[in-house]
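PROTEIN SPECIFICATION:
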Amino acid sequence: MTGIVIEYCGPGDSREQSARDLADAVGQAEYFAYEAEWHLEKHTLIAAESDRVVGFLRFVVQEIGPDSDRPSLALRGEPMREAYVLAFGVDESHRRRGVGAALQSKLIEEATTLGCFQVRSRSAGDRAANHALKLSLGFGVHPTKDTDQGVFFVLRLPQAERSPGGVRD
């Protein structure tokens, strides 16, 4: 992964459109653009090689529950928050080179800093490479009831590394 940097890409960043274009090229444009009333924050991480975006990971911070038509879950009276991955992809020319793992690792780091209890994502059943990546990073897996044989991946974040204001045991 020499020469590739993982960093935030915010609104107005000149590379944001490149991230959106890559999302479109890998079939993730709909998910990249998805917005819901329960999203508290939106974040985009990119993998960049020089000025070229070669990977992206779009995630939101949300309370656990509302996206499943459930009340927010709470621990000791505090709503539990999660980093939920909306879209994730790596340019075909850069796959199997550690770019996806680096994006996922940065997500885990950022979600911990943001005080999230867990990281969660959904993946269609035919995404074997994504499944293998998530499992190698320690995510648990749970099937969905969707027709595409999808699964949810969930990774509980370490309590000791939570930022002030995050949920604590």
Remarks:
- Residues 160-169 have pLDDT under 50 and may be disordered.
- The helical segments are 16-25, 29-33, 99-113, 128-136.
